[in-house]
Amino acid sequence: MNTSNINPTMTQLGKVRSVIRETFEYGNKRAKEIGRENVFDFSLGNPSVPAPEIVDDTICGLIKTGDSVQLHSYTSAQGAEPTRAAIAEDINRRYNAGIDKNDIYMTCGAAASLTVSIHALACEGDEFITFAPFFPEYKVFVNAAGATLTVIPADTENFQIDFDTFVSAISPKTKAVIINTPNNPTGVVLSESTITRLCEILKAKSEEFGAPIYLISDEPYRELVYDNTTVVPYLTNCYDYTLVCYSYSKSLSLPGERIGYIVVCNKMPHHEDVYAAVCGAGRALGFVCAPAMMQKVIVSALGTTSDISVYKTNRDLLYNALTEYGYKCVHPDGAFYLFVKALEDDAAAFCEKAKEYDLLLVPSDSFGCKGYIRIAYCVTTDMIRRSLPAFKKLAETYGK
Amino acid sequence: MNTSNINPTMTQLGKVRSVIRETFEYGNKRAKEIGRENVFDFSLGNPSVPAPEIVDDTICGLIKTGDSVQLHSYTSAQGAEPTRAAIAEDINRRYNAGIDKNDIYMTCGAAASLTVSIHALACEGDEFITFAPFFPEYKVFVNAAGATLTVIPADTENFQIDFDTFVSAISPKTKAVIINTPNNPTGVVLSESTITRLCEILKAKSEEFGAPIYLISDEPYRELVYDNTTVVPYLTNCYDYTLVCYSYSKSLSLPGERIGYIVVCNKMPHHEDVYAAVCGAGRALGFVCAPAMMQKVIVSALGTTSDISVYKTNRDLLYNALTEYGYKCVHPDGAFYLFVKALEDDAAAFCEKAKEYDLLLVPSDSFGCKGYIRIAYCVTTDMIRRSLPAFKKLAETYGK
Predict the structure, then answer these.
(1) Which positions ≥6 away from A334 have C-beta within 8 Å?
(2) What pLDDT shows up at residue A231?
(3) What residue of B is the nearest CA neighbor of A14?
(4) CA distance to A181, B39, B257, per residue, from B24 (Å)
(5) Do the chains contact at A286 and B108, CB–CB below 8 Å?
(6) Reported pTM
(7) Most buried pick, A48, A398, B20, B79, via CB within 10 A?
(8) Interface with chain B: mutation pick from A11, A135, A171, A239, highest number of B CBs within 10 Å
């Protein structure tokens, strides 16, 4: 048979690796040639600090004292009730948000939170809007639901939102807006005034069109903020048509365990329909339930995080050194990324040049914002220290 | 706003609970009224025997001796290489199937194995075929990929395949055929001659149309077979265009942990494209990777199962008693279900009558085959013993 006759979009998605993965694989190859310690791999957003001890202690405790059948059994599709109740209580304690356990749907991590939310909302031909620079999988997720993604170009001054362009992009086809704060790849936290203005626009436009524009807040980095950064407002307190997408991948260093949740703001009219659509989308995509044991484990870890002070140390070390060497970079208040202006127009070419010093950086093109590189500083502080001479030499080749 | 403007299909899927779930919830309510011990709930296919000890021992071992960061970190999207290698070796040891680690894609359980396979293959307007009685979520999964499901009516004689009807249903639009053996809800194992004939037809029709018809073998119950039931042939040995969908939910009693895999038969032409499409579909649906720790845990449990002798005891006890009381039921060789002819034409009415004796059974209508009830006997043997008088009284009300 000279045809496979399968879905060409899916084949394409499976074959074209993301540039992040490509860089990571190159790093592994290079490590075999010159030794792991000589490769400065800043490509992946994989947490480098362990999960808090309570996580592993709870797993062992549940196994020793619990009923194995019950421990590993299906939970209800929306998640175990005690878990949802505990998460709602934790959110309310921190943000006074009035969340109920029945507003929460447990997911297999941030990507699942997004695909389930998007499939719940999207009808064929709908438009979603996001802001560059943005996590490139948003486009994949939105397209898989039969919708299109409109990207608002970056506000390269402050990496907040270019509101004029945003307002002109909204149309009756706009189903939802996706924000990500603290942001991957910039590390920037959207300011309270940015969020206030965003919500005002969404309210006005929803009323103008007579149909809601939803806000999807993708916030796996919520707890990863440094210094005295003002806490981001909890979005359900700002805008009724909000879905919060959360994951414990970063805050508890559990990226491989696939555990997170969606909050459907209970102040939106038709809340019951939207929550049902979230359940329906989870069912249709084949999620069944979030991993059962992890649903129990995270309850014990609510209110704690991995030791994120390491990330702050890394950020300060790297930010201070790079700016001293002549690099330009927005000061990041959260997440574990630096978004640095490349020292030539072509970010991909700059990353190739950096490879000569065994610095593995990710060019910004796939994030929808050319001319920058992303540095994931969720690595050891020691590696950062050892990488600094390479960053210095790289700058010097550009006359800095 | 008097519209939610969301996806109506998803809302519908979230609101209309499956009859299985409805029955289960009724059981919980009834247990509060008359005591758990007086409710004979046969509704859910949730394993009642614990995971083998090696599973929980391995989890604790990994936590005590392993590196926490590495343990909980992302694996590659297709799954950790050592896990895929160990599974391939285990399959080859048992079935001499020539599977390579690069033919295996790790998933979040059986439902994910199915949705990812279906999305990899399906183009808009494609048809998938399955055989009644069938797991009702197949329709949900196929429709979510933009395709339609054609159901071949049951062969109520032997619950094998009505080949005449099947052959006449195949068309150039047929993208794939889904089989499930041992079967939920009948417990029947497809015979070797059935499978041989099925594969011959698929080969002939693929050649006739000049495009492959894929075979999706949904087999989470593969290891749950009793007596001297001939081992089902491994499907990749029978037909090149096969995708095997597996899950450890039943064999290792880990339904809540969401761990399984897809095998893409490496003998199909364009194997690389199809495997890429599987990876692409997993990516588009938001799976990222299968739960990381569980990927490591199952390696230690390969070749073992939970103590399935309990299920055999239960099957024999129930089958023998029910047939003695006058019920008619195909003798099941596998899984943990009995598919019993209702004692009146309307299976739903029969289940309502059974409720008067606090017997909670699932009517067969949603499985695409009217007039039967499904009994999930993955319960305690003690409950089965205590339920027998109720089954007897129920039969007597129908003059048996």
Answers:
(1) A181, A182, A183, A187, A188, A189, A221, A224, A225, A226, A229
(2) 59
(3) B280
(4) 41, 11, 20
(5) yes
(6) 0.97
(7) B79
(8) A11
Q: Give the residue on A whose Cα is nearest the Cα of B79.
A: A256
Residue of A nearest to B144 (CA): A284
CA distance A295 to A76: 11
Strands A372-376 and B127-131: unpaired
Average model confidence (pLDDT) across chain A: 95
Largest CA distance in chain B: 65
Q: Measure the CA–CA gap between A185 and A295, rounded to whole angstroms.
A: 28
Tell me whether residues A59 and B56 touch, CB distance under 8 A. no
Q: Which residue of B has its CA nearest to A248?
A: B72
Q: Which residues of B touch A251 (CB under 8 A)?
A: none
* Candidates A44, A206, A253; nearest CB to B69: A253
CA distances, B372 to each of A115, B131, B355, B398 (Å): 37, 16, 15, 15
Contact B5 A211 (CB under 8 A): yes
Which of B10, B75, B113 lies closest to A119 in CB terms?
A: B10
Q: What would the pLDDT profile of B208-250 be if each residue is shown by its tens digit? A: 999 999 999 999 999 999 988 765 789 999 999 999 999 999 9
B399 φ/ψ sector (left φ>0, alpha ψ -120 to 50, else beta): left
Nearest to A339 by CA among A129, A141, A161, A134: A134
- Residue of chain A minimizing CA distance to B204: A1
**CA distances from residue A275 to A90, A107, B14, B105, B224 in whole angstroms, order as listed:** 20, 13, 8, 31, 37
Q: How many CB contacts within 8 angstroms connect chain A with chain B? A: 295
Contacts of residue A109, defined as CB under 8 A and 6 or more positions apart, other chains included, come to A247, A248, A249, A255, A257, A258, A259, A260, B286, B288
DSSP secondary structure of A315-338: HHHHHHHHHHHT--BPPP-BTTEE
The reply to whether residue B11 touches residue A255, judged by beta carbons under 8 angstroms, is no
In chain B, the domains with their CATH numbers are 8-51+307-397 (3.90.1150.10), 53-301 (3.40.640.10)
B174-180 and B214-218 beta bridge pairing = parallel
User: Shortest Cα distance from B120 to chain A (angstroms)?
Assistant: 6
- DSSP letter at B357 equals T
pLDDT by 10s per residue, chain B, length 400: 788 899 999 999 999 877 887 888 899 899 999 999 999 999 988 899 999 999 999 999 999 988 999 999 999 999 999 999 999 999 999 999 999 999 999 999 999 999 999 999 999 999 999 999 999 999 999 999 999 999 999 999 999 999 999 999 999 999 999 999 999 999 999 999 999 999 999 999 999 999 999 999 999 999 999 988 765 789 999 999 999 999 999 999 999 999 999 999 999 999 999 999 999 999 999 999 999 999 999 999 999 999 999 999 999 999 999 999 999 999 999 999 999 999 999 999 999 999 999 999 999 999 999 999 999 999 999 999 999 999 999 999 999 8
Contact B11 A293 (CB under 8 A): no
Sign, CA dihedral B134-B138-B142-B148, equals: positive
Q: Which helix (H) or strand (E) holds A374?
A: strand A372-376
Tell me which chain B residues have a C-beta less than 8 angstroms from the C-beta of A210: 1, 3
ipTM of the complex: 0.96
Two structure tokens written together for A262: 């969606």
**How many residues belong to chain A?**
400
Residue type at position B322: L
> Is there a contact between B51 and A72 if contact means CB atoms under 8 Å apart?
yes
